[in-house]
């Protein structure tokens, strides 16, 4: 095989990403939802308009829009020199540091596609992302919370032949240091020859919470993602005076786009990144940086509510606290205003697209009891029964949606797409909801086989498959169990082979050593002789979920 063919083989192909039907796409363009602007251009515009305005703060690092934009251009040169080009996939696994954004925007400008891996991902997830996308590069921090990512990169590189480059923030060992890739312009500057990527093409691949054995990748285009970011910023009142605290992992869809860091850049505001997720660290930053808006998952919100009652930090700059990612109880919601002195905004979103917000003008009843309403007038939602027929108004059913920023299919997953999307292009969210008379959604449950561990999603089947790989395990079923802080934790019911009993610690260590992200390792493992079955003979997970209550109470 020639080198040219090999290069072609590893390129990202838009045909692997199902797209909106032509008529719908035309409409979204004509109506002005899709503006044909790329993320690279968006940042360039801000750098021109607000050069000296601070864009990004992390620890002692403070980048103005001008510096941010310069760093991005420098990295474009460095990445280009390394051989990263238009349509190359790059797995990015970075913590909450400024470099995450320099990297992503440089890739956007090159037309390369970042996969938004989370710092918690380990060998199983990263190897899969690299292999599945034929990624050309993997970008990491040397160490984070004691974990050695260079060692992980070494293992992945040995297994994935497409992976040509490992780029490291910090001590690079045998790999390339990101700091060496910030290159100044020379004669024949590559920037002058680059063509702006097509805004209707995939800008990034988000990672789905998943319901199947392997996580699915979500292709988001510049057009659709930027539209969602823009409307989100408008709804949340984000402007050039906004100061956003980002304590959730930056790559996650919520802090990235709802309106998240990208929404703040879109509006010319300032992003403050933090890694220490304790309430004290957050409160100190709120006071110091005069934070106006923050986004949290419910478990962290509960910790903030507790800590705020005793804190001496001044939190008065905080105007909006967004809570989303998992169901936030109305009881906790009611405390936000009196305890933290700011407005609660509930956010019910998904990396596949649709995001619902309670509005800043909504009354407390709506803000405390609902998960908001779709952000765009072009979002179409319907609530259906098991046969796919609309339920009566106010009744519980599955939420389906389509619209200008909801994907029409996962990346390279034609078979799964026929199940996850209806024939008329609606995404089946797997969420059970109720629509109020005023058009707000209340999330009441889930039909997808997933555990929502305080906002972190676990596909039951993925963990079950990993456990089944242990020689002592005959069968396994993973279900959610109630948890006071997380909302849900995970419990694995395991049937061992008759002659091979094993221990909880052995199975947990097995999963860790296989390289499964630690949040997916079951919080509890129970050994049983058999599973309750449904009338048709399937494992009755509902009954198992009830059983976790009994276990908990023993
Ligand atoms: C109940 N369940 C919720 C909520 C998400 C903004 C906010 C969150 C996400 C996100 C996101 C919920 N109440 N308020 O991408 O842009 C559950 C639902 C949903 C799934 C999506 C965003 N908010 N959920 O959490 O892709 O089950 O996105 O389908 O990680 O989280 O998970 P994810």
UniProtKB/TrEMBL annotation:
Keyword Aminoacyl-tRNA synthetase (UniProt): no
User: Which family does the record assign?
Assistant: Belongs to the ATP-dependent AMP-binding enzyme family.
Write out the entry's keywords from A to Z. Ligase, Nucleotidyltransferase, Transferase
Which stretches make up the AMP-binding enzyme C-terminal domain? Answer: 462-538
* Name of the protein this chain belongs to: (2,3-dihydroxybenzoyl)adenylate synthase
Please indicate which superkingdom the organism of origin belongs to.
Bacteria
Q: Domain AMP-dependent synthetase/ligase: where?
A: 44-411
The pathway that the record names for this protein is: Siderophore biosynthesis
Gene3D superfamilies the record matches: 3.30.300.30, 3.40.50.980, Luciferase, Domain 3 (2.30.38.10)
Pfam assignment, any one: AMP-binding
Q: Name one GO molecular function term.
A: 2,3-dihydroxybenzoate--[aryl-carrier protein] ligase
Provide the E.C. number(s) assigned to this enzyme.
2.7.7.58
- InterPro entries according to UniProt: AMP-bd_C, AMP-bd_C_sf, AMP-dep_synth/lig_dom, ATP-dep_AMP-bd_enzyme, DHB_AMP_lig
Q: Name one GO biological process term.
A: siderophore biosynthetic process
């Amino acid at each position: 095989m020639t080198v040219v063919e090999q290069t072609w083989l590893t390129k990202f192909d838009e045909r692997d990403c199902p797209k909106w039907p032509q008529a719908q796409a035309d409409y979204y363009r004509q109506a002005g939802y899709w503006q044909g602007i790329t993320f690279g251009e968006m940042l360039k515009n801000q750098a021109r308009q607000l050069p000296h305005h601070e864009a990004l703060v992390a620890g002692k690092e403070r980048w103005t829009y001008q510096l941010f934009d310069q760093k991005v251009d420098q990295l474009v040169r460095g990445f280009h020199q390394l051989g990263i080009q238009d349509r190359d996939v790059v797995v990015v696994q970075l913590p909450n540091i400024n470099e995450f954004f320099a990297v992503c925007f440089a890739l956007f400008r090159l037309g390369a596609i970042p996969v938004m891996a989370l710092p918690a991902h380990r060998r199983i997830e990263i190897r899969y992302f690299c292999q599945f996308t034929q990624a050309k590069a993997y970008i990491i921090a040397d160490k984070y919370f004691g974990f050695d990512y260079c060692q992980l990169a070494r293992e992945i590189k040995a297994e994935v032949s497409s992976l040509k480059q490992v780029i490291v923030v910090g001590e690079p060992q045998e790999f390339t240091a990101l700091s060496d890739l910030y290159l100044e312009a020379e004669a024949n500057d590559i920037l002058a020859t680059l063509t702006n990527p097509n805004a209707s093409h995939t800008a990034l691949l988000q990672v789905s919470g998943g319901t199947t054995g392997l996580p699915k990748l979500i292709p988001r285009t510049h057009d659709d993602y930027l539209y969602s970011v823009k409307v989100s910023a408008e709804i949340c009142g984000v402007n050039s005076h906004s100061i956003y605290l980002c304590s959730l992992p930056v790559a996650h869809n919520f802090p990235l786009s709802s309106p998240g860091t990208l929404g703040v850049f879109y509006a010319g505001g300032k992003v403050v990144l933090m890694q220490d997720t304790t309430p004290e660290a957050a409160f100190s930053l709120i006071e110091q940086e005069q934070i106006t808006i923050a986004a949290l998952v419910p478990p962290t919100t509960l910790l903030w509510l507790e800590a705020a009652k005793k804190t001496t930090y001044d939190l008065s700059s905080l105007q909006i606290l967004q809570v989303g990612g998992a169901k936030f109880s109305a009881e906790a919601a009611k405390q936000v205003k009196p305890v933290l002195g700011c407005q609660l905004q509930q956010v019910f979103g998904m990396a596949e697209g649709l995001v619902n917000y309670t509005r800043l003008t909504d009354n407390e009843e709506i803000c405390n009891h609902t998960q908001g309403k779709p952000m765009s007038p072009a979002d179409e939602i319907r609530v259906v029964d098991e046969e796919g027929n609309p339920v009566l108004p106010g009744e519980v059913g599955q939420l389906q949606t389509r619209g200008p920023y909801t994907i029409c299919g996962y990346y390279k997953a034609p078979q799964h797409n026929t199940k996850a999307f209806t024939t008329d292009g609606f995404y089946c969210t797997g969420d059970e909801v109720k629509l109020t008379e005023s058009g707000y959604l209340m999330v009441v449950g889930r039909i997808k086989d997933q555990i929502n561990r305080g906002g972190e999603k676990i596909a039951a089947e993925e963990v079950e498959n990993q456990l089944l790989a242990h020689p002592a395990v005959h069968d396994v079923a993973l279900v959610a169990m109630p948890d006071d802080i997380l909302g849900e934790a995970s419990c694995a019911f395991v049937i061992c082979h008759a002659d091979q009993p094993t221990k909880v610690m052995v199975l947990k260590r097995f999963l860790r050593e296989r390289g499964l992200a630690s949040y997916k390792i079951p919080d509890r493992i129970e050994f049983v002789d058999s599973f309750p079955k449904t009338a048709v003979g399937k494992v009755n997970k509902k009954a198992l979920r009830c059983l976790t209550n009994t276990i908990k109470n023993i």
